[in-house]
């Protein structure tokens, strides 16, 4: 099993192919320190999603190693790996129930107060508070009544509550109103603090705030640097 981690992530000469046997990742090397925020940028099909899918071990590498805190992730159990990882997709999963339940998902023992504290920390509280029944407002599976930005804020609160050491975020591309956009930007900052994050980044603010940007092209990292350097 993977013991509690600090969040160092290394790719050591990683090569990957899907079943099609076409080379998708070609000798990827990097070392990321605990707490770093990595923005992955690059054209569609360049391999960004594949990189994050390998970190959470949805697939195994063909050659090379992925190490977390020095341990090859191939040698640990999937549950022990995944429980230390938060994965946030572009369109967050909302199930039918209250907002409270939706945030609590993943940390079922959390009290109402803890849920509210998490929501406040990621700037989700204000919009929730404005809803008819606040945290006890019922939403259905498609998250009706919630905008795409609000669904993301809920997923931020959920992730903060679960408190994983490694966070993977596929940032949404959908258009979001200015107010929610600002909440997302600030909320993301508090969510990222103290954990290692890999963000498939679409917002300029995210890219600017990243510790490092990996520019991906054709399955290779062609540049690594900060926003100022690149
Ligand atoms: P996007 O910005 O569109 O999400 P991306 O940079 O995340 O793109 P990937 O999704 O990692 O790119 O895809 C990299 C390459 O792998 C693409 O050529 C894609 O067609 C291919 N690919 C992705 N998933 C599979 C799969 N399950 N089987 C075969 N090929 C795949």
From TrEMBL:
It comes from Halalkalibacter kiskunsagensis. This is ABC transporter ATP-binding protein. It is found in: Cell membrane. Residues 9-230 form the ABC transporter domain.
């Amino acid at each position: 099993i993977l013991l509690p981690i600090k969040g160092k992530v290394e790719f050591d000469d990683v090569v990957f192919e899907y079943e099609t046997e076409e080379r998708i990742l070609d000798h990827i090397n990097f070392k990321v320190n605990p707490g770093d925020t990595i923005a992955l940028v690059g054209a569609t099909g360049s391999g960004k999603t594949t990189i994050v899918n390998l970190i959470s071990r949805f697939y195994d590498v063909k050659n090379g190693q992925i190490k977390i805190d020095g341990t090859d992730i191939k040698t640990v159990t999937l549950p022990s790996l995944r429980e230390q990882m938060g994965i946030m997709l572009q369109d967050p999963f909302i199930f039918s129930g209250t907002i409270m339940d939706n945030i609590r998902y993943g940390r079922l023992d959390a009290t109402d107060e803890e849920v509210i504290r998490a929501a406040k920390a990621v700037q989700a509280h204000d919009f929730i508070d404005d809803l008819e029944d606040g945290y006890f407002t019922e939403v259905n599976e498609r998250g009706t009544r919630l905008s795409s930005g609000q669904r993301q804020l809920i997923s931020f609160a959920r992730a903060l509550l679960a408190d994983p050491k490694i966070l993977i975020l596929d940032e949404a591309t959908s258009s979001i109103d200015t107010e929610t956009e600002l909440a997302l930007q600030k909320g993301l900052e508090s969510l990222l603090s103290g954990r290692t994050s890999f963000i498939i980044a679409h917002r300029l603010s995210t890219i600017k705030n990243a510790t490092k940007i990996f520019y991906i092209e054709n399955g290779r990292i062609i540049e690594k640097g900060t926003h100022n350097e690149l």
